[in-house]
Amino acid sequence: MTRIRELHYRVAGAAVGLFPGHHRSRSGSSGFEFRGHAALQDAPDVRRLDLHASLRDPFGGWIVRLHSERKSIPVAMVADLSASMGFEGAQRKLEVLADFAESLAWSAWRTGDSFGFVGCDERVQPAFTQLQSRVRGAGVALAQRLRTLQPQGRSARALREAHRHLPRQRALVFLVSDFHLPLAEVEAVLDSLASHDVVPIVLWQPAEFALGATRGLAQVREPESGEQRWLWWRPALRERWVAAHDERRQALLQAFRARRLAPMFIEGAFDADAVTRHFLA
Question: Which of 86, 140, 151, 247 is deepest in the core (most CB within 10 A)?
Answer without folding.
Answer: 151
